Amino acid sequence: MRLQSDGGRRTSPMLPVWVLIFSASLWGLAWLPLKYFAGQGLLGPMVAFLTFGGLGLISLPLLVREYAQWRHCVPLFLLLSLVGGWGNTAYISALLAGDVVRVALLFYLAPVWGVLGGRVFLGERITKRRLAALACALGGVLLIVGGDQSFAAPLGWTDFLALTAGLAFSANNVVARHAQSIPTASKTIALFLGCMLTSALLLALQEGSAALVLPALSVSVWAYLAAYAIGWLALATVTWQWSVTRMEAGRSGVLGIAELAMALFSATLIGGAMLDAGEWAGAALIAGAALLVALEPDSQDQNASG
Asked: Rounded to whole angstroms, how far apart are CA atoms 225 and 30?
């Protein structure tokens, strides 16, 4: 197995794959704390504003310290902040406000955007294996959500949030892969700050300026928010940014769909959801797609470090 350089250290080319699967698993389980916060009367944008915004503010000293390393590529930093911030804010908002099945179908078109974006903007090859994995993944999503029946109703605001969240996540992967000179920590903080700004904007658009007033929450809820931000979102975001920086955008886009599989299995085991044969077949297709891409031979393009 070939090794690749990572800031002077030599790491296995499979490490980013497993780190991304770990991060996708954390995101796939995110519905658990989000449902709790929804029960406390918190809107999705407010959860994003409080958690990601708090992380961004406490991380500012580190961002300032690393500024000299990325000051020559400020536009890329701002673009990363925009797409990463919107992806997380829109996803959380859609998940809490809309039908989870419908949101999943629209959001998990993300692998399509990842493969196409990697090809158009980074010149990545679309291999036969990746095409097969993409077909398996999308076929699995369609089986899980009931095919075209999910589109019986017209697209609405929540659908727009879910669709653009998937597009923004894929754009984040492409930009993170391209911006090799921006340290992973700064990329992560860019996303935190972007979430704070986009969630504030979304709150203002949806509820008016009064929605920006902090809600009256108990001490325990504030403690859970802090724990969720530091122990969950920070870890999930850092591992995601680290791995997609070291992996082709098309590959990371397909691997990221493992998040849906984790959400599905956790809803079954923890939430008591009942799955039919089609849904189990869809989960198997998604798992197969992730395995196909995870075992794809390493290419020269994947040896970059950031």
From this structure: 13
Q: How far is residue 293's CA from residue 138's CA, in Å, rounded to a whole number?
A: 14
Q: Measured between alpha carbons, how far is residue 225 from residues 6, 21, 97, 109 in Å?
A: 33, 24, 19, 29
Q: First CA to last CA across the chain, in angstroms?
A: 21
Q: Is the pLDDT of residue 180 over 60?
A: yes
292: its two tokens: 């196909």
- Residue 301 host element (H or E): none
Q: Is 83 in a helix, a strand, or coil? A: helix
pLDDT band for position 4 (cuts 50, 70, 90): very low
Q: How far from chain centre, in Å, is Cα 76?
A: 18
Domain count, the chain: 1
Residue owning tokens 């070291």: 246
Residues 6 or more apart whose Cβ sits within 8 Å of residue 36: 224
Give yes or no for a contact between 89 and 45, defined as CB atoms under 8 angstroms apart: yes
State residue 302's pLDDT score. 42
HEC secondary structure over 222-249 = HHHHHHHHHHHHHHHHHHHHHHHHCCCH
